[in-house]
Specification:
The protein is built from seven helices and twelve strands. Strands 1, 2, 3, 7, 8 and 9 form a six-stranded antiparallel beta sheet that branches. Helix 3 packs across helix 6. The radius of gyration is 20 Å and the shape is elongated. It binds a DNA duplex (16 and 16 nucleotides) through loops.
DNA sequence: CTCCTATCCTGCGAGC
DNA sequence: TGCTCGCAGGATAGGA
């Protein structure tokens, strides 16, 4: 696990805000802290949709069902955040560039799509320049039937549901490359392009390997490292929660030291071989041709 | 069924 | 230096 943090590598070339499970969990925890002060729950006094057309139109039920409700808790499922109330939940996906911030009076920004006004006078803003995010209403009891939530695989940190045998079964006779398979949210949730690459590096498995060719010992390693990278990233993200207020648009995200992500052509942190890059499953992928087979 | 590709959208960096 | 262009990504629809 130490190796994960080994290299002093800057990966700031691209927008660091790419919410996978750890980033979403960090945002969830930050929101939970804001919305429950001194054991007092926040009440939504008003919901303002400033622009309704993000990935999908924000339904009016978000406003009609949730206005006046008390936010009882914040949950994460896969890369979704759920604001729970007695009358249903606000479902939020950050997409690529989604963020929540406390927006004091006057702090209105381009690409703010929704304001949650709280009864204590505070205001939460959902901003998403690229509009890949999603806001929706989930009726009570629809947690497993809502279209966004119905076909999700197990949580990767759930050792009862996600383990080597499960992964091996999911891989059985599949010709698909292992990398897009572990990014498939119906197989296992929360693993995006960054952590898929990092986990495969740590497990010593080429992202191009056909899933059906995964050996049992490799499945053990892959599951272990998926868990490790996600856990380490959550732990690292946790330290940013205290800055949630000030952090604004980049709240909840953290700088990271990656072994392969965005390091194409640079030397492998383990063997110094130049890292190779290719598009796999439609996504940019970097790996070490020596360490990963 | 399985797998792959295009699509959505904006910001940013590479390159001219 | 200023401009254009291509690429980045999660989820999903549609095609092979």
């Amino acid at each position: 696990l130490d190796f994960f943090f080994a290299g002093e590598i800057s990966n700031a070339r691209h927008n660091p805000a790419m919410p996978e499970l750890p980033e979403v969990e960090t945002v969830r925890a930050g929101l939970a802290r804001l919305l429950k002060k001194n054991a007092t729950h926040a009440i939504i006094s008003r919901i303002e949709l400033t622009r309704g057309d993000i990935r999908k139109p924000i339904p009016t039920t978000v406003v009609t069902q949730l206005t006046g409700q008390t936010i009882l808790g914040l949950r994460r499922r896969a890369k979704y955040i759920l604001f729970d109330t007695a009358q249903g939940s606000l479902l939020c996906h950050l997409g690529m560039t989604g963020s929540w911030r406390l927006a004091p009076p006057g702090d209105e920004r381009e690409h703010d799509h929704c304001y949650l006004h709280l009864s204590d006078g505070r205001r939460l803003a959902f901003r998403d320049p690229r509009r890949f995010g999603l806001l929706d209403f989930v009726a009570p009891g629809q947690d497993t039937t809502h279209p966004c939530l119905a076909h999700l695989g197990p949580e990767p940190l759930d050792e009862q549901m996600f383990h080597a045998d499960y992964l091996l079964t999911a891989c059985h006779k599949r010709k698909q490359a292992i990398k897009p398979l572990i990014m498939d949210q119906s197989i296992v949730v929360g693993v995006g392009n960054i952590y898929a690459q990092e986990a495969l590096f740590l497990a010593g498995i080429s992202p191009r390997r056909r899933a059906g060719r995964l050996r049992p010992t490799e499945a053990v390693e892959l599951v272990k490292h998926i868990r490790h990278v996600l856990t380490a990233a959550i732990k690292a993200g946790g330290s940013t929660i205290s800055d949630f207020r000030q952090a604004g648009g980049s709240s909840g995200y953290f700088q990271h030291q990656f072994n392969v992500y965005d390091r194409a052509g640079l030397p492998c942190t383990r063997c110094t071989t130049p890292l190779r890059a290719a598009v796999i499953g439609g996504r940019g992928t970097t790996w070490c041709p020596t360490c990963q087979r």
